[in-house]
What does this fold into?
Amino acid sequence: MVRYAIIGAGAVADYHHVPGIRIDPRAQLVAACDPNEELLARRRSEWGIDRLTTRYEDIVADPDVDAVIVCTPNFNHAEAAIACAGAGKHVMCEKPLGVTCGEAIAMYRAAESAGVRHMTAFTYRFAPSMRYLAHLVKTGALGTPRHFRSQRFLDWPETSWGWRQYQKLAGAGDLYDMTIHRLDFAMDLLGPVESVCGAVATFCPRTTTADGQTCEPSDVDDWSALIGRFQCGAVGVWEGTTLAKGHHNHGFGWEWAEVNGSEGSAVYRLTEPNTILMGKFGGTMDTVPVPREFLTVAGTPRDPADGVPSTVFRYDLVYEFTSAIVEGRPAWPGFDDGARAQIVADAVLDSSAARTWVDVNLSLDRP
It folds into this structure.
């Protein structure tokens, strides 16, 4: 039995990770940490646990915790994850790993040095259509990959994001929150990115909270875009925004990721995660059901027919992490993947500031 603690008991933990723990008979939620005592009191009954604390140091010191999932604000990730790894606890962490790629690299090194399993919560790698798209690319079903393109459009309110709208606390805005997922799965599909030309912009000052209070204006992006070149020779185009009016789609937004190869094309869509669009030369992009073997991670107890398709695939993250712990193998995707995606994201920020192409150094051995 892998005994889990949640550090950061907010919506992400409740939506993604706790359900994943509950359906896995090899996993048990035993503790939670959050500075909000009122939230902890609610989680006591909702999650059915009694071991609650406002200090992550208590989780670090707890001998009855084997693994932690860090779901705190970005600026707390590195400190908590490094401390837990140093105490011999396996660590999954939400993205981005840190507020800079330097923090992310430090987290990877700490986990590797401690010999613990580590995982970045890159949710969309586990979508059935993304898993099938990866299979199509890697087996050559689309021929030689030539183009990748990604759109992630959200229709969010223009009020304050809280800590997420300040660079010192979040690192970046849409780029770190949403586009970084697409950087990750693009590199999983096509390999390393070697250079980028990017831009970010801020359209909303976000000086008002949802309840009408005033606050300091945002200093992070709410739109990001880039062109990239992959080492394999393919090219990519990414765009993300939180300001695409009409793209709310019951909270799921709009997401499209496409690969064009020399023999065919295929498309992943978040709103239709159990189907994929495919087309060959001279044909049309037809809807194809994702084969059953790609609907879940192999071995998971999750029933792919149970629940909202765009939600339930996220539970497979915990299954993968628990499997890596039980089997004594690296988890997928690891902190190394999280750090490399953040290196590319930081190169986008550098490119936007300098208004030029930037070469990407994905080495994790840098000073």
In short: DSSP finds eleven helices and 15 strands in the chain.
